[in-house]
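_Backbone structure tokens_
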Amino acid sequence: MAAVKGLGVVFGISSSAITIAGGARTWNITGQSVAKEAETVVVKDKDGETKGMVVYDPRDVVGLTVYPNGTSLANAVTANTLPDIGDLCAVTDSSDSDVGGNYVVTSSAKSKSNTDVTSFDIEVTKYATDISATIS
């Protein structure tokens, strides 16, 4: 862990764990972004000037960059599968109140290179109503 000296700053990635679709895969987080989004309708007057706004359907969107790994090569190969769109993603983060909670996978992509490890870019979304549970 890094030592902070001089000016107090938040350093590094704070999410301590992610579990997607039951946790059968092990991924290390190397990048994280957080955004708050919503749908909006702008209300204008007869001259076209904005006089108000309707904001609805708020949601938190977290972008994760991870790499698959395991205690053996076989476990790493097992972890080398992208999550499905709609999978539940539980993010644990005790030091950042903007991040933790139950999300739904909304995008996933895999990158491979002959000079680097395989990495995934995963986007997960948390809506005002928790829709992460699978129903039947």
